[in-house]
Amino acid sequence: MHPHQCELIKLKNLGAASVNILNSIGIRTYADLQRIGAVDAYLTVRNRGINASRVLLYALQGALLDVHWNQLEPDLKAQLVADVERGERSQQSA
Asked: Where in the sequence is the signal peptide annotated (predicted)?
């Protein structure tokens, strides 16, 4: 395993499959994920044609906050979904 993968795999919610997906879109470190953010990372994954559920979105945010995705506040989950939907709309109109 690449050293950067070791860094990501240590984050909450991220397993080998998630780390491989993140690597495929250029996210190799916690700093990369933090810079890009959960919403833009998720949108990039979806734009690559990778089938990703909202659980990945929540998992990415949870990894950034060091909490299990299932413990994210409902309001935060709703905000993440709203941000994704806004991002998808702006991509469609571009």
From this structure: none
The pLDDT tens digits of the residues spanning 62-82 come to 999 999 999 999 999 999 999
Helices (H), 1-94: 3-9, 16-24, 30-36, 38-47, 54-65, 74-93
Query: Rounded to 10 degrees, what is the CA torsion of 57, 59, 62, 64?
Result: -80
Q: How many domains is the chain partitioned into structurally?
A: 1
What is the distance in angstroms between the CA of the first residue and the CA of the last residue of the chain?
38
Cα separation, 62 vs 23, whole angstroms: 18
pTM of the model: 0.91
Q: Domain range for residue 47? A: 3-93
Q: What is the dihedral of CA 50, 52, 58, 60, to 10 degrees?
A: -20
Residue type, 59: A
CATH number assigned to the domain comprising residue 83: 1.10.150.20
